[in-house]
Specification:
Blueprint (H helix, E strand, L loop, with lengths): L1 H9 L4 H8 L3 H12 L22 H16 L12 H10 L10 H10 L30 E12 L3 E10 L5 E6 L4 H12 L7 E4 L3 H4 L10 H8 L3 E4 L9 H15 L7 H23 L30 E7 L5 E3 L4 E3 L8 E7 L4 E7 L5 E8 L4
Parallel strand pairs: 1-4, 4-5, 5-6
Antiparallel strand pairs: 1-2, 2-3, 6-9, 7-8, 9-10, 10-11
Helix pairs in contact: 1-3, 5-6
Length: 391
């Protein structure tokens, strides 16, 4: 149409007739006559609508800062980057630590574009199997910092010239702060030694969630055998939660940290002894805690109303801990006979619950075992109660 209009204009046809026949305005015709007069071969084509100036274009200096921080984090060639993450959030975090104005720090999407545009190395995300549990297996939904801690052992790993090392890890589900210590073995004494030291400087939680390892449960022979670890927790007012056997994803918070321990710490370092790994592990935890605190500082998170910490001089005979009133919880799947197994003893739930997760609570003070079920509508039902006498 543009070419036809110019052809008729050159041939001397009146503008009014051209515009009337083509259904266009006089200004439209004048625009293309002017464009044709410039002599360009592509005069009839639309010009790019891209703005000639980009008001929010990132300063080249800031782009270089993003690139340098990213490369430094990938190489781990400085103390602050030695055990850190490398993603867009980590780059924002380190720019704030370098006292850049928060308003000048690029957004996450902008940082990702810079990384992609400059062909910087990108880690491939691990793919995880999705669990169709809809979180119905747990009745505890923590909301406060230090309300629930998860603990777990990683190992044994082997240090050349030294021997096996097992790393005990603790992480706050809401506050995301981490701690831990390394030992030669996975004994229950090591777990209690670490916790007693931790509770003298950090908050005692309301709940501790663990797997079913012997470091936490004790033996797998005697029925109704309460381990020393559980007794210690009850002694300081903690309710222990045992996840279902062979279901580590139920301890997702600590499992996430275990993966970071392996990827960002164990594979990056060379250790010579137990003392050496403990020293470097403290630096790793400090790095993780600074980053996690920065990520959560804009969220309105509250601490537990009651602050509980052990006195520095607190002592307890770990081989003779009294069994005090309190609650122990178990997440258990109902087996093919309609039973659940708790502390080396089976309790009947009902064949209608086969394959479902149940929540089992032992109340030491009331000497009572209660089995609960959270249905698909998130309504909790009490299935059955048993008298649970403990000597």
């Amino acid at each position: 149409m543009r070419k036809e209009a110019i052809k008729r204009f050159i041939e001397g046809e009146k503008q009014v007739i051209i515009c009337r026949n083509l259904g266009k305005s006089k200004s439209w015709l004048n625009k293309w006559v002017k464009r044709y007069s410039f002599g360009s071969n592509d005069w009839y084509k639309d010009l790019s609508k891209r703005p000639k100036t980009i008001p929010n274009k990132l300063d080249d200096q800031l782009v270089n800062v993003v690139i340098r921080i990213r490369e430094s984090l990938m190489e781990g060639d400085s103390e602050y980057a030695q055990y850190g993450f490398v993603g867009a959030e980590a780059i924002q975090f380190h720019m704030e630590e370098l006292n850049y104005d928060p308003e000048s720090i690029p957004s996450l999407s902008t940082i990702k574009r810079i990384i992609k545009r400059h062909n910087l190395r990108v880690n491939k995300k691990e793919r995880y199997k999705r669990v169709k549990s809809k979180r119905r297996y747990s009745l505890i939904k923590p909301e406060y910092i230090d309300e629930m801690h998860q603990i777990d052992f990683v190992g044994p790993r082997y240090i050349r010239g030294y021997g096996p090392v097992n790393s005990l890890h603790l992480k706050d589900v809401i506050g995301r702060q981490v701690a831990g210590k390394q030992y030669s073995g996975k004994s229950m004494d090591n777990v209690m030694e670490f916790l007693l030291g931790y509770w003298k400087s950090d908050q005692i939680p309301k709940y501790i969630q663990v797997d079913n390892g012997m470091s936490f449960t004790g033996d797998f022979i005697h029925p109704r055998s309460i381990s020393r670890f559980v007794k210690l927790c009850l002694y300081v007012g903690i309710e222990v939660i045992f996840i279902a056997p062979a279901k580590p994803w139920m301890n997702g918070t600590i499992e996430e940290f275990n993966k970071n321990f392996d990827r960002l710490f164990w594979r990056r370092e060379i250790f010579s002894s137990l003392t050496d790994i403990r020293k470097k592990f403290k630096v790793f935890c400090e790095s993780q805690n600074r980053f996690n605190a920065w990520k959560l500082e804009k969220k309105d998170l509250q601490c537990l109303p009651q602050k509980r910490i052990l006195k520095r001089g607190f002592k307890l005979d770990l081989n003779n801990i009294p069994l005090l009133p309190g609650k122990i919880h178990f997440i258990r799947m109902v087996d093919g006979n309609g039973n659940v197994s708790i502390l080396n003893e089976s309790f009947h739930v009902g064949v209608e619950y086969i394959g479902e997760y149940t929540w089992v609570t032992i109340d030491i003070g009331l000497q009572l075992l209660t089995i609960l079920y959270n249905d698909e509508e998130m309504i909790v039902h009490e299935i059955i109660r048993y008298n649970y006498k403990i000597d």
